[in-house]
Amino acid sequence: MSALRWSSALAKAPRDGTEFQVWWSGQWQPRARFDPDSHAFELWGRTDYDTEGWETFYWSEVTHWMPQPEKPV
């Protein structure tokens, strides 16, 4: 199995709702996605700790992204 590598090219991140991980505003965020319906990048409940759910975030603050790792077997 090859090691997962961080990519700084957010332009290549999935645009079909597939979840991935990002390094955003100096913090690792384990669940991010691009919502094809709203045309926005979103984080799972991480930008506002008072709520839980998908929230739009400033994609320009992303320095790296990578796919989610495979689930254990």
What descriptors fit this protein?
73 residues, mainly beta, five-stranded antiparallel sheet, 5 strands, 0% helix, globular
Report what the structure shows.
The protein has 73 residues and is an all-beta fold. 0% of the residues lie in helices and 38% in strands. It contains no helices and five strands. It has a five-stranded antiparallel sheet, with no helix packed on it. A hairpin with a 2-residue loop joins strand 1 (20-24) and strand 2 (27-35). It is globular and about 30 Å long. The two termini are 13 Å apart. The mean pLDDT is 83.
Question: Helix/strand/pairing class, anyone?
Answer: mainly beta
Instruction: State the separation between the terminal residues, measured CA to CA.
Output: 13 Å
Order of helices and strands: EEEEE
Biggest beta-sheet profile: 5 strands, antiparallel
SS summary, helix count = 0
Instruction: Give the DSSP E fraction (strand runs of 2 or more residues).
Output: 35-45%
- Kindly state the number of beta strands: 5
**Radius of gyration over alpha carbons?**
12 Å
Shape: globular
